[in-house]
Structures are given as structure tokens and as C-alpha cells.
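Q: Predict the assembly, please.
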Amino acid sequence: MPTSVTELMASLGVAPQVLQGGDLATVSPIDGQLLAQVHSTPLNQVAHAAVRAHGAFLRWRLVPAPQRGELVRLLGEELRAHKQQLGQLATLEVGKVSSEGLGEVQEMIDICDFAVGLSRQLCGSTMASERPGHRMMETWHPLGAVGVITAFNFPVAVWAWNAALALVCGNAVVWKPSEKAPLCALAVQALFERACVRFGQPALSRDLNQLVLGHADVGQALVDHPKVALVSATGSTRMGRAVGQAVAARFGRSLLELGGNNAIVVAPSADLDMAVRAVAFAAAGTAGQRCTTARRLIVHADVYGDLVARLKKAYASFRIGAPTEPGTLLGPLIDQAAFEAMQQALVLARQQGGVVTGGERVLQAQYPQAFYVSAALVEMPAQTEVVCHETFAPILYILSYQTLAQAIALNNDVPQGLSSSIFTNDLREAESFLSAAGSDCGISNVNIGTSGAEIGGAFGGEKETGGGRESGSDAWRAYMRRATNTINYSSALPLAQGVRFDI
Ligand code: UN1
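A: Predicted assembly structure:
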């Protein structure tokens, strides 16, 4: 297994000279060491990329969808063959523990498989026409160039959710990854290029999926470009609000997957052993840096004492350290700003009546330039302002409830609406939580946590989460345009609604 970042990147097909001399420094959150200095994309090149992607779309849309699926199948094969290396790179660049780095690549493979099947199932409906000798149907056509903006915390999988679907749907992609994870993006692009070579069209990779690297100005140039038909953006609500408004102003389409403030409800009938394990992974896994991370625990008063005691014990046992070490459960936060935001939230939580366990910086002597923390449990007297805010760190606010109606009201009474779950063995409670009057989130689960969704379902949420749906189910429709077709196979010309216009 390669050790240095240069070797690792070479094993993924990225040449060493790409990693040097650029203006965009990438640092490993494991120890704060510089990994590479890559070149950010000049702003005029971003416009170029959008125009080239549009040109590629004009050609790619004519390729039959199952053949487009073949390119994605080959991409899936490259990902299978390089799963170890790409997972290792995610660990190095964003600090995911090894199994989560590998899991993220698996998520890419899964969506490729899904998209290959989908390439033969881009189905429209047929409707009954009110007119004799007429038929109505809808067809789904490729949309155009798709801008994909991704966050540091899922540096490869979120691109794959978008790109695999966009490509089988006949679109071209311009990808703006997080400025904190350009190496993962370069590696994925190299694997995509290999797939294009095996597809027999090496030139495709230059246009069909293009990378633009850099800070927010690069993303802004992409968002504003009139040739970008759809912008799919994952990240903070602040970013999504700016993207959504800019794209709407030019009547483009956006697909937003923004902040979450996900709650787990634990009812009196819950299997508490299971709940403890699920809460631990959902709240502290990935060092609290998933959009689906559980940030609130809403516990029935009857089991509150027992559950919180068990959680404190579990939290005390977490192994915190370098994500490369076997057995580590909590890797580092992405950077100092994330650490400071976490500390600030804990100060506010105390001011608002919270009792905090954990949340301190650890391993500072060993890693002075990295930010490891113990996961925090914060018992809150009420759902105060700080609890309503998403802090991207392992902080779990704990609240207590008496009736299921109260628990559902607490679950819904935040600005975000991504994921939610209930632990209960009471069928009535479970179904009420999933019902129209239950959780208002895009994802609602029973007896599993809020994070770690499979690719087969539509992924996304309501309210400030942005309303977009990516990944499985019928999320592909966002990447296509729908045309309604009415065909007259009679020799008369009746008008709809009985209108007469006789000449
Ligand atoms: C994200 O954090 O942006 O459900 C995506 C999950 C993962 C995806 C998270 N499958 O936690």
C-alpha cells in the first residue's frame, strides 16, 4: 500500500507535477501537514468549462441512454479496482476513519450500479387523451450542463450521486469540489478518464466531466453561467441560499442539499442497547461532520436517566486518534475554524442552561496543528437558540419529553428538515412519527439512526435543507427535462375542452 501522498495519487493516475507549485494548499486534518499545492482554476476558465460542457452535452444527448450507462458501468469498475486507494485518500485529505473512507467509495460504486440499471429505465407515462384518435405521453430528455458543488465531508460520494445520474441522463458535468478536498476530486477525475479510455472515447473525459478547483469565487462563476442548466449544491444553508437565489434569478434550476439538524426520538418502549449504539454512530461518527449527523436527542422522561447514563459510558470509551489507526472511532475535525465553531456553540449552550460532558480538545501535544475533540453530550433544559443551529461538530443536545406529540413538535421546531428517527417498539408511535402529522423531514427512520442512508432512496430534506432530492428513487428526474406530447392519429382536429374554432 502506498504511503506518501504522491505515491497514493500516482496509484490513482494523478501525475506528481499536478500536486506542486499551485496556489491552493491542501492540508491533512490528521496532523496539519501540507499534502499538496494544486492550481486553482482561473475564473475565465470556469466559463470555458461551462461552454465546453454544454458542447459535450449536445453530442452526449444523442448517445442512447444504455450506452451512456456503459460509461458509468466502466466508472464503477474503476472505483471497485481502486477502492482501497481512494478510501485511503479520503482518510488522508478529510480525516475519515478508514472504514468510513472505504464506505464512501462503496457508496460511489452503489450509485454507479443504480445508474447503469436506470439507463434502461428513464421512463415516462402515457395518459388517456379526452379526444378520440389521440394519445398523450411524456418523454424525458437530457437537460444540459450540470454544475455540481460538493462539500469537504463527502469529498467523492456526493459527486458520484450527481454525476452518475447526470451522465446516464445525457448531461455533462462541471464539478467544483470543496477547496479543502481537491486531491480526492483530482483522483476521481483520473478514474473517470480511465473509464472514458476504456469506453473507447478518451476525448470525452475532457468535456463530459470537468473539474474546476478553487474557493467560493470559482463556485460563483459556475453558478452564474447561463450555460449551466442545473446547479446541484451540497453544503451550508448560507451557501445554498446564495446559490439558489443566483440560479433562480436567471431561471436556472437548482438542487439544494443543505444543513441538517437531525433528531433521534427515544420512546419508553425502545430497545435501549440498540438506541445507544445507533445514537453513538449517528452523533459522533465522522466526528459529527455529516449533514445527517444526529444533533438532537429527544428522550422520554421515563428512560432519560438510564439512556443518558449509558451514553456517557459509551462516549467515554470512544477511541479518538489518527483515522488511519485501526480501532479509531473519532478522527479529527476538518480544521481550526471547525474547532472554534464547536467551542463557541458549547459556550452558548452553557449560557442557555446546558450541562456539557466532553467537547474538549484532545491529543494537542501529539498533533499541535490538528484538532481532535472528545464528542460532547449537552443536556439542555429546552430547545434554545443554539440547539436550532447546525454546528458541524460532534455535539449532541439532549432534551426530554412526556408525550409523543411533544417529541414530534420538538423534532419539527427547527429551521432544517433533513433526517429524523424514532426508537420505539410501539407500532402506533412508529407509524405516527412517519405519518403526515409526524416528522417533517425528508428522511424519517424507525429503529435506526439519522445518518448512513443507502443510495436507493431519494436523499434530501425540507425547509432550510433546501428541498432537493439526490441519489435513488426518482431523483433522476431533476437531471432531465420533461416534454408532454399529444399525438393525433385521427383525420379530425377536435379541440380540447370542447372549444370550437371552425373556419
Ligand atoms: C452528507 O453528509 O452530505 O446518509 C451526505 C449519510 C450518507 C451521506 C451523507 N450516506 O449519512
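The domain at 262-446 is CATH 3.40.309.10 (Aldehyde Dehydrogenase; Chain A, domain 2). Residues 107, 153-154, 158, 234, 290-292, 451-453 surround 2-aminohexanedioic acid (CB under 6 Å).
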